[in-house]
Design brief:
With 356 residues, the chain is an all-alpha fold. The protein contains 19 helices and no strands. The protein is elongated. The protein starts with 13 loop residues before the first helix and ends in a 13-residue tail after the last helix. The N terminus and C terminus are likely disordered.
């Protein structure tokens, strides 16, 4: 899509996959056992607060438990999770580093430390912690999933796909994992496999956010624009003000010759996201096809302001200016187009350059 890169949000998935109960806060090899009654009561209170998403209370309770019993693994796990869920990421990292030094073979602590690093946007230590967690316990869906999130955030699609394949082997019923695997496939030139993943996800959850969008994008990248349009329209039904979906719908409508439909979608896309150069460019092209040269000039000038080095925008602007009777400016834009075209190097990879 001419650098039409639209990434899905890379949120940590800890709130869904880090499921803890009181006994699970202890080392797997250690059963729940008698301990200081006050500490035991605090652990139960902290767990109850986590269960109800009262993270401020959870932090307070687990801090007290950890103060009373600093060598208690459950207290450290609970406090680390509470810091993570309440957004106290620096505290989570500090505690996590100390905790993994004390319990170096605890997969959960490594996992949550990795999530804390990831939320702080420090991907290298996040990967290190998560990979160590995976070495300690490769049977956890969430660990593979979260490693994949880090890779996706770095646009490293092949290793992300590897981790998501492992995750799906452990839990094939997670629709979001299938969507993300589809994205990883799509961006590593495995579009047919991507389509299958998106379709699988939609069978599980027909209204899963952005799933129809990603399926439509995959169809469009293969030139199957009518199928793409159908999927984009399904997504728009649930997200009518998503400028990315509106733009892609408009682009596909333009490709099929539906100028009227394209104009409606592209106008709304530009209104919602004025910084989208691709939408402004397509809007200019569509207006030119509709013989509205003055409006086309305005849209294309805006596209050039956003990306002056796009030769196609200068070419289309030259045509719109010529139709508007501005011959001298049209010639200048055509010369600018020729200069930029000479500077362009041949692009490799996918012919359409459409990535997501």
């Amino acid at each position: 899509m001419g650098q039409r890169t639209r990434q899905m949000s890379h949120q940590t998935h800890g709130s869904l996959y880090v499921v803890i109960v009181l006994c699970a806060l202890l080392l797997p090899a250690i059963p729940c056992q008698s301990q200081d009654p006050k500490v035991e009561r605090l652990l139960k209170q902290g767990q109850a607060a986590l269960d109800t998403e009262d993270f401020a209370t959870a932090v307070s309770v687990f801090e007290e438990a950890e103060r009373l019993a600093p060598e208690n693994l459950a207290a450290n796990r609970g406090l680390l999770m509470s810091y993570l869920q309440s957004g106290r990421l620096t505290d989570a990292v500090d505690l996590g580093k100390k905790a993994v030094t004390r319990w170096p073979n605890d997969a959960q602590l490594r996992h949550w430390l990795g999530l804390a690093y990831f939320k702080k946007k420090t991907n290298e230590p996040a990967l290190e912690a998560l990979k160590r967690s995976e070495e300690l316990d490769s049977s956890q869906f969430g660990i593979h999933f979260d490693i994949a999130l880090v890779w996706l955030s770095q646009e490293q699609y092949s290793p992300a796909a590897d981790e998501l394949e492992k995750a799906i082997q452990l839990n094939s019923s997670d629709a979001l994992a299938h969507v993300l695997l589809g994205r990883a496939y799509q961006n590593s030139n495995r579009t047919v496999k991507a389509i299958k993943e998106f379709q699988t996800a939609l069978k599980m959850k027909p209204n899963l956010p952005l799933a129809h969008y990603h399926l439509g994008f995959a169809y469009a990248s293969l030139g199957r624009d009518q199928e793409a349009i159908a999927e984009y329209q399904k997504e728009i039904a649930h997200s009518p003000d998503n400028p990315t979906v509106l733009y892609q719908l408009g682009h596909s409508l333009l490709e099929t010759g539906d100028g009227k439909g394209a104009l409606t979608s592209l106008r709304k896309a530009v209104e919602l996201d004025p910084q989208n150069q691709d939408a402004a460019y397509d809007l200019g092209k569509t207006l030119l096809l509709a013989n509205d040269a003055p409006a086309a000039v305005a849209a294309l000038r805006h596209a050039i302001e956003l990306k002056p080095t796009n030769p196609s925008a200068h070419y289309q602007l030259s045509r719109a200016l010529e139709k508007s009777g501005q011959k001298e400016e049209a010639l200048q834009e055509r010369q600018r187009f020729a200069e930029l075209k000479k500077k362009q190097t041949k692009s490799g990879g996918m012919a359409t350059a459409r990535s997501q």
